[in-house]
Amino acid sequence: MSQRDHHSAEDLAMEDLAIFLAAVDGARPLPKRDRVVLDAPKPSPRPRQRELDEAAVIGELLRGPLAIDDWLDLGGADSFVRSGLSRTVLRDLRRGRWSIQGHVDLHGMNRHEAHEQVTGFVAESLAAGRRCLRIVHGRGHGSPGREAILRQLVKVWLGRCNDVLAFCHAPPSDGGDGALWVLLKAGGKQRERS
Q1: Which of 7, 15, 19, 105 is most buried (CB neighbours < 10 A)?
Q2: How many CA atoms lie within 13 A of 130 on its CB side?
Q3: Which residue ranges make up each domain of the chain?
Q4: How high is the mean pLDDT in each 10-residue block of the chain (194 residues)?
Q5: Residue limits of the Smr domain (predicted)?
Q6: pLDDT of residue 183
């Protein structure tokens, strides 16, 4: 490049700069912001209608009389193990291989109070990471007709709870047929249905 070409490129650059400065004359910089504005994270969707439906069903179950199907469901099962699990889970529970990490006593409660107590106790235990529980439901000696209604209802409620893996009657030294030992899933979030 010759000396003359160099000057003309330099002159063009100066001319371009002058044009640019004339174009932005009187412009002011935007104010600086020292923070980034982010949208708050959106909550995960909740199945509200399903929750309302389940709450309505629970309400009906608690307030209404027990239907014949409920009495048939109660059965006389002394133990339960979730479908798909090995029977050794129940055997280990019966043999006391799990230490009891919490207990609740339902003596003197009606079925409504007992249901609230059991569901709350299971939820709290799951949240606290407890796996093995004792639920004392009694033998029904204080019930009308001396029938162990709570003993049967507690079994139904626990069998419907997806977080319950197994349950069995406690040994005589720990309440016998007046108490249940219950094994919960590890670190599960409550998915109560009853």
Answers
A1: 105
A2: 16
A3: 50-184
A4: 62 89 87 76 78 66 51 60 87 88 90 90 92 87 62 86 90 86 75 43
A5: 104-185
A6: 93
